[in-house]
Design goal:
alpha+beta, Porin, 2 domains, twelve-stranded antiparallel β-barrel, two-stranded antiparallel ribbon, 2 helices, 16 strands
Length: about 300
């Protein structure tokens, strides 16, 4: 009897020993797996869009990839003085014929901005939309931001002041695909391909003499750069290069502009010199005759004001 009892005790102790050994191994394995899972969770970093590639929807005469937050309403005031090649006679263009545009923009849904504006030259009304297709991401994802912009403008001058024969002759269009990258916290760059289209193709000289029919589509490219000198001040550059011209009828001049940008949380003020004056992009890219290196340069500024609702 005693022998049997001792055998049962030994068997129970052996079973307990095996059980405790198995439990220890199981708990150790679970602990290792849990630690590995925690390490994996720690190294996973949420991908977020890069902020403030540009501070404004405008950089000098060009749109940027930026689309403000949903519910943002913006007012734009753009002014271009006359060229300064007459010197003191018209105070370096300040008292020469100037061009002005007043614009209004709104973001009804995320990544989509719509707006319209009125420009002094030719009494142009323009209507536009811009959509952010891609956004540059932190910690992987898209390396660039990509946006598409379209503008439609209508010349509303009196019929006797134009040579239009049809209502559709008054319309022109501009398409632009923009790619930008914030390279460092201070430097952002953007390139774009552009197409301008005018329904009306007849070309006249300054005396009103008919020169011929122009091609309707014009292609160009734009380069933008902004370098932050401080949190509120930046150095800006724009260059626009036409790729097509209409044989001898019209050869648009390229644009070169340099300036400074001052920003706050709700304002942007840009002051610059360049040789674009038209303010509506298809007119700048197709009809510009000012040559920067012939001293046909003008002073311009942009003011934008944001409200969030």
């Amino acid at each position: 009897m005693i022998s049997n009892s001792n055998d049962r005790i030994r068997l129970s102790l052996a079973g307990l020993k095996y059980f405790l050994t198995f439990a220890f191994i199981f708990i150790s394995m679970v602990s290792v797996v849990a630690q590995e899972a925690m390490v994996e969770e720690e190294v996973v970093v949420e991908k977020k869009p890069v902020k403030k590639t540009f501070e404004s929807i405008w950089l000098i005469d060009a749109q940027t990839v930026m689309v403000p937050y949903k519910g943002t309403f913006e007012v734009d005031f753009q002014h271009r003085f006359g060229t300064w090649n007459n010197g003191y006679k018209d105070f370096y263009g300040v008292f020469a014929s100037s061009n002005i545009r007043l614009g209004f923009d709104y973001v009804p849904v995320e990544n989509l901005e719509v707006g319209f504006g009125l420009t002094k030259f030719n009494n142009l009304w323009d209507f536009y939309g811009k959509y952010a297709i891609l956004k540059q991401m932190q910690n992987g994802g898209s390396p660039v931001s990509l946006s598409y912009y379209i503008n439609a403008a209508v010349d509303t001058r009196r019929e006797e002041d134009t040579k239009f024969t049809e209502g559709t002759d008054r319309w022109s269009f501009f398409h632009q695909i923009m790619a930008a990258r914030k390279i460092t916290d201070k430097l952002s760059v953007q390139i774009s391909g552009n197409m301008s289209w005018f329904n009306y193709a007849d070309v006249y000289d300054s005396n009103g003499e008919f020169l011929g029919e122009d091609q309707k589509a014009h292609f160009s490219g734009t380069f933008l750069a902004r370098y932050k000198l401080s949190n509120t001040i930046g150095l800006t550059v724009e260059y626009d290069q036409p790729f097509t011209s209409s044989s001898s009828l019209r050869k648009p001049e390229p644009n070169l502009s340099v300036g400074l940008e001052l920003v706050t949380s709700s304002h942007a003020f840009q002051l610059f010199v360049g040789n674009y004056q038209a303010l509506v992009p298809q007119y700048n890219h197709t009809y510009n005759t000012n040559n920067f290196f012939d001293n046909e340069i003008l002073i311009g500024f942009n003011i934008t004001r944001l409200w969030n609702f």
